[in-house]
Amino acid sequence: MSLSEMHPTGRKVILHMVSSLDGYIAKKDNSVSWLENAGTVYEDGVSISEEEAAAFVKTIDCYVMGSRTYEHALELGWPYGDTPAVVVTGRKWPPSRKSVEFYSGDLKTLVDLKLAPRFRNIWLVGGAMLCGRFLELGLVDEIILTIAPVVLGEGLRLFGGSLQQQAWSLKNVVAYKNGFVELSYAERR
Ligand SMILES: NC(=O)c1ccc[n+]([C@@H]2O[C@H](COP(=O)([O-])OP(=O)(O)OC[C@H]3O[C@@H](n4cnc5c(N)ncnc54)[C@H](OP(=O)(O)O)[C@@H]3O)[C@@H](O)[C@H]2O)c1
């Protein structure tokens, strides 16, 4: 990460989502088979090994998610390991995994006062509602959008809320052998 990409406080909030070609992040029935490898091979694409993926995940200091994403992640078997995770919710929840804490309140306070002093590489992993709110409040430093090679036709739109136009700068594009494409954008300051 270059100094120019870093927030003045040193923290970096990275929004990461996977979208279909038609801009959906979840099907109505919440099934996730569309996120799996379609089986086709894009010859010019790259692939990453499980070791490389595991090493990359270790660079993430903290995950942030909305309560509906949390519920779905629990159903799927919790893909976030023991990395600290903050679940944004207005509800009371029974104690969960040690690495999980619940937060209710102002999102700027969450980022600036609760997360920034403890974490640098903060990954916002959904869902549509919470990501939309983070974008509205200008709390996202980088967007990583992975496009899956599928049209869903219906489902939950990428970002919730009523966003105003925002300009972002393309920083990187990675095409994978499995047909997924990862687009990275930085906030234009
Ligand atoms: N394709 C992908 O990359 C991807 C990634 C993540 C999730 N998903 C999918 O997206 C769906 C969930 O997304 P979603 O948009 O429905 O829900 P979400 O953003 O995960 O969670 C919404 C909930 O978060 C809490 N919340 C959000 N903003 C808040 C705020 N400002 N203050 C306090 N609490 C706030 C509220 O919880 P309470 O109601 O508890 O108060 C709200 O109901 C799931 O189907 C999931 O599988 C897909």
Structure description:
- This protein is of the alpha/beta class and 189 residues long.
- The longest helix has 10 residues, at 67-76.
- It contains 4 helices and 10 strands, in the order E-E-H-E-H-E-E-H-E-H-E-E-E-E.
- NADP nicotinamide-adenine-dinucleotide phosphate (NAP) is lined by residues 17-18, 25-26, 30, 65-69, 72, 88-91, 104, 107, 125-130, 133, 156, 160.
- NADP nicotinamide-adenine-dinucleotide phosphate binds at residues 17-18, 25-26, 30, 65-69, 72, 88-91, 104, 107, 125-130, 133, 156, 160.
Features:
single chain, 189 residues, alpha/beta, Dihydrofolate Reductase, subunit A, 8-stranded mixed β-sheet, two-stranded antiparallel ribbon, 10 strands, binds NADP nicotinamide-adenine-dinucleotide phosphate
Uncertain segments: none
List the helices and strands in order: EEHEHEEHEHEEEE
CATH superfamily: Dihydrofolate Reductase, subunit A
Instruction: Write down the Rg.
Output: 16 Å
Distance N terminus to C terminus? 16 Å
CATH class value: Alpha Beta
**How many separate structural domains?**
1
Topology-level CATH name? Dihydrofolate Reductase, subunit A
List of distinct ligands in this structure: NADP nicotinamide-adenine-dinucleotide phosphate
Q: Largest beta sheet: what is the strand line-up? A: 5-4-3-6-1-7-10-9
- Biggest pleated-sheet summary: 8 strands, mixed
User: Per the principal axes of the C-alpha atoms, what is the gross shape?
Assistant: globular
Output the number of helix runs: 4
Corresponding CATH architecture: 3-Layer(aba) Sandwich
Strand runs, count = 10
Which class best fits the helix and strand makeup?
alpha/beta
The average pLDDT value, as a whole number, equals 93
Question: What percentage of residues falls in helices of 4 or more residues?
Answer: 10-25%
